[in-house]
């Protein structure tokens, strides 16, 4: 909301920076040594639901180069062409193969032996998270989720 002079914007009682205020100092971003911040990180979302693909793009594209694959064949083709920094994997891909199958196929490729791969699934019964982690996933997030939950999970596995 703006005051009558249009010089200051407030939201829930907080003072917002006016256009003539000096820019606040920011510490330079610190990246893990193995990841260069000279480029956006590359993320592959293996998800058969187009709406979920759009959601991943909407949530993550400001900081990531987001690619989508709807099945195992497409995921493997993209993974062979592009070195992804992290992979978000739906478990139920709506076909004969599952996200666990894709995980194991990716782990056979040298460049994906240690790449973080996260299970993103509606399987949320007690023990499901532990089962997916035991299958070889590096993280787990249940559907539905909020943007902050997704970002926190990526931070937790060290890629955000």
Q: What's the story with the biggest beta sheet?
A: 5 strands, parallel
Question: Roughly what fraction of the amino acids lie in strands?
Answer: 15-25%
By DSSP, the count of extended strands is 7
Q: CATH architecture, please?
A: 3-Layer(aba) Sandwich
**What name goes with the CATH superfamily?**
Response regulator
Give a structural overview.
The chain has 160 residues and is α/β, with parallel strands linked by helices. The protein has one domain (40-156): Rossmann fold (3-Layer(aba) Sandwich), CATH 3.40.50.2300. It has helices at residues 50-60, 72-81, 99-107, 128-135, 147-156; strands spanning 10-11, 14-15, 41-46, 64-69, 86-90, 117-121, 139-142. The strands form two sheets. It has a five-stranded parallel β-sheet with strand order 4-3-5-6-7, with helices on both faces. Strands 1-2 form a two-stranded antiparallel ribbon. Helix 2 (72-81) runs parallel beside helix 3. The longest helix is centred in the middle third of the chain and has 11 residues, at 50-60. Mean pLDDT is 80; it is low at 1-37.
